[in-house]
Amino acid sequence: MALYRYDIAGSIAHAAALARAGIVSADGFQKIQTDLRAIEKEIESGKFGWDHSLEDVHMNVETALTKRIGDAGAKLHTARSRNDQAALDLRLYVKAEIAEISSRLRDLQRALLHLAEKHLDVVMPGYTHLQRVQPITFSHYLLAQIQAFECDANRLRDSLTRTDVLPLGSGALAGSTIVLDRERIARDLGFSGASQNSIDAVSDRDFVCEFIFCLAMNGLHLSRLSEDLIIWSTSEFGFLEFSDAFSTGSSLMPQKKTPDMAELTRGKTGRLYGNLMSILTTMKALPSSYNRDMQEDKETLFDSVDAVKNALEISAAMLPELKINRERMQAAATDPNLLATDLAEYLVNKGTPFREAHEVVGKIVARSAAKDIPLNHVPLAELRKFSRFFDSDVAKIFDVRNALANRGAIGAPSAENIAAQIKRWRSQLGT
Predict the structure, then answer these.
(1) Which of 27, 47, 85, 425 lies at a C-alpha separation of 20 to 30 Å from 238?
(2) Which residues pair with 240 in a beta bridge?
(3) Catalytic residues
(4) What is the 3-state secondary structure (H, E, C) of 15-70?
């Protein structure tokens, strides 16, 4: 069912090539085209009578056509096989889904960008190993997600170059003695060119494997985004809250709010990985040319496509409804220990080798913890016991806004950099 429109498009282009070769008359081609379009409308409206005794969509469409127009329909399968026909339908399907998923990726990136613009001044801790380490801004985090999804978009665009090849005309594996203009067929169907080896054309499912890999990587990034939001919505963090539309209550505990949509998105990634391993395992030991095992490509492909499209749509709708607790984020970012590295770099700028500066600050942090004194409240006289380079200007190190402003290298979270990145993404995403 998912391939019917591509099967019909391919059949019309093939019929046009047969007409140019004199195999089908002009009148016959017109009948084929007209009735295939009529069959397409019947399928779309749910009125088409599928015959389950026939093997697949190809045979259903061709049989229905032949019943309607007779000999012209019976000539349609000249110089083609279901091997190259199935490969064609699958490539057309993957091309269309690359375009659709790329569009949904853009919608998600725009949602992230709007959230970043809305919360430009919100400071939060950055984490490694789920430990607070250095201050960042919430916008910087969101821009990181946009960048990750841009890699997904780039992978999809790159995979399109290997999908955008016409296999039709390769026959079962050795072409046909009836030579058709394959380059013209390729142009008619919107392909960049025709395949150059008939055996490879019917046995190649690399483009399916690659596409499913791209979807699995997209799932990885969706899962990591979901995981961050889930963690930050817990009482322990309290950085954000999911709206009622994207969460549910508990059947037992009236106070509980479960981030269902984010959890389901995270969970779908396991299926995406499973689908990737399934298609790779199916293809790994097949002899060259077409084998019936390759029918297994569709279930994994369709499932991955549906899962990613739904996850992208839900995530793009969920983000604008997040309630951000800026006070809780900013309070967490005021932990002076987040600026311990800045304190070490202060000593570096005074002439201390970094390894020595790192050791000095490590001792100061340990001492402040032992005495239960915040790092930014350690007296200057005490600091000078560890290094003679400490002076009164050290107090500036513990100004979080100043610390962020000093992070001006490309890719770092200074306000100037973030503004420039938002401007770039606005242009690139067309917002």
Answers:
(1) 425
(2) 324
(3) 129, 250
(4) HHHHHHCCCCCHHHHHHHHHHHHHHHHHHHHCCCCCCCCCCCHHHHHHHHHHHHHC
Is 137 in the same domain as 232? yes
Q: Which residue range is the domain that position 93 belongs to?
A: 83-331
Which among 408, 385, 383, 401 has a CA at the least distance from the CA of 393?
A: 383
Is residue 366 located within the same domain as residue 289? no
Structure tokens, 264: 């389901």
The CATH number of whichever domain residue 45 belongs to comes to 1.10.275.10
Position 117 scores a pLDDT of 97
Q: 100: which 2 tokens?
A: 């659709």
Under 8 Å CB-to-CB from 321, ≥6 apart: which residues?
242, 243, 245, 246
Provide the token pair at 249. Answer: 């209550």
Residues 37 and 54 in one domain: yes
Rounded Cα distance between 64 and 36, Å, is 9
**Assigned token pair, 250:** 């508990």
Confidence of residue 311 (pLDDT cuts 50, 70, 90): very high
Is 381 buried (19+), middle (13-18) or exposed (0-12) by CB count in 10 A? exposed
CA–centroid distance for 128 within its chain: 23
Tell me how crowded residue 283 is: count the other CB atoms within 10 A of its CB.
19
Residues 207 and 146 both lie in one domain: yes
Q: Could you report the per-residue pLDDT of 358-399, keeping only the tens digit for each?
A: 999 999 999 999 999 999 999 999 999 999 999 999 999 999
Mean pLDDT to the nearest integer, 227-248: 94
How far apart (Å, rounded) are the C-alpha atoms in residues 334 and 315?
A: 30
**CA 125/CA 334 separation, integer angstroms:** 8
Q: Is the pLDDT of residue 28 over 90?
A: yes
CB atoms within 10 A of CB 316: 18
From 290, 312, 331, the end of a domain falls on 331
Token pair belonging to 318: 């969920």
Residues 6+ apart with CB under 8 A from 61: 4, 7, 8, 11, 36, 39
Residue 321, H or E segment: none
- For 261, the token pair is 């949509």
Note the pLDDT of residue 220: 98
pLDDT digits (tens, 9 = 90+) for 132-165: 999 999 999 999 999 999 999 999 999 999 999 9
For residue 391, give the CATH number of its domain.
1.10.40.30
Domain end, chosen from 31, 53, 78, is at 78
